[in-house]
Amino acid sequence: MAFGRLERSPTSQPMSEINMTPLIDVMLVLLVIFIITAPLIGSSLKLDLPKTDAGQNQDAPVFVALAIDAEGQLFVGDVPASAEVVAARVQEAARRDPGTEVQLRADQAVPYGRVAELIGLVQQAGLNRIGFVTEAPAPK
């Protein structure tokens, strides 16, 4: 040690390691953004539901068959019925077995809102298993 002088350390060396903390922070922020926006991207799909090529016939042991024709008339099985009759039949089926499936056949010309009303009617009665019946396309 020299008189009156402070010792200096040799010149500082540059840091040779990368600080990973900011990189991990950015990655986690991007992951959270992706998790939040992924469900929103899926809801923007435009689907043409009546055109199905892979509909499988799954016969449920207990089911209620409901249909809506192009004019919006409701049917239970093949019998025309009012909304009150449909609600009564579905409530009766729900009382007997809450696992009863509703097989819904809707004409392609029926507005989606009308189908949604029928689904709401079925769910208010206590049945949650709803299957949409489609026809297989003609063989090519």
Quick summary:
The chain is of the alpha/beta class. The chain has helices at about 20-40, 85-95, 110-125, and strands at about 65-70, 75, 80, 100-105, 130.
Kindly describe this structure.
This protein has 140 residues and is of the alpha/beta class. The protein has a domain at 63-132: Nucleotidyltransferase, domain 5. The chain has three helices and five strands. The chain has helices spanning 21-42, 83-96, 112-125, and strands at residues 63-68, 74-76, 79-81, 101-106, 129-132. A five-stranded mixed sheet has the order 3-2-1-4-5, covered by helices on one side. A hairpin with a 2-residue loop joins strand 2 (74-76) and strand 3 (79-81). Helix 2 crosses helix 3 (112-125). The model is unreliable at 43-49 (pLDDT under 50).
Uncertain segments are: 43-49
Largest sheet: 5 strands, mixed
The total strand number stands at 5
Q: Which bin fits the share of residues in helices? A: 25-40%
- Alpha-beta content class: alpha/beta
How many helices? The count is 3
**What is the C-alpha radius of gyration, as a whole number of Å?**
32 Å
What sequence of helices (H) and strands (E) makes up the elements?
A: HEEEHEHE
User: In what order do the strands lie side by side in the largest sheet?
Assistant: 3-2-1-4-5
Secondary-structure arrangement, i.e. CATH architecture of the domain at 63-132 = 2-Layer Sandwich
Anisotropy-based shape = rod-shaped
CATH class of the domain at 63-132: Alpha Beta
Strand content: 15-25%
Task: Write the CATH fold name of the domain at 63-132.
Answer: Nucleotidyltransferase, domain 5
End-to-end CA span: 97 Å
On the 0-100 scale, what is the average pLDDT? Answer: 79
